[in-house]
Amino acid sequence: MLTIATWAAIVMVGGAIALTLWRLWKGPGIADRILALDTLTINAIALVLLADVALDTSVYFEAALLMAMMGFVGTVALAVFVRRGTIIE
């Protein structure tokens, strides 16, 4: 039963990634595209963690943590760039 639920969740997260990529492509503004990129990072983390559960290992957990940290830093850097025009003062 866990295998079926895991694969169903992988398919649903894959669909969420596809919809997020659509918003990233067609976003009306730069803020919408930044939010779509952040959402894409969160969906990719969920996909990595679901693969971790499906493969019954704990190897990918550290990769998910690194993706979360890099996604946060990237989102903040893009937001600062859009607001100020430069990242480092």
TrEMBL record:
Its main location: membrane. Signal peptide: none annotated. InterPro entries: MrpF/PhaF-like. It holds the Pfam family MrpF_PhaF. This is Multicomponent K+:H+ antiporter subunit F. Keywords: Antiport, Cell membrane, Ion transport, Membrane, Transmembrane, Transmembrane helix, Transport. One of its GO terms (cellular component) is plasma membrane. The keyword Transport applies. The chain crosses the membrane at residues 6-25, 34-51, 63-82. Belongs to the CPA3 antiporters (TC 2.A.63) subunit F family.
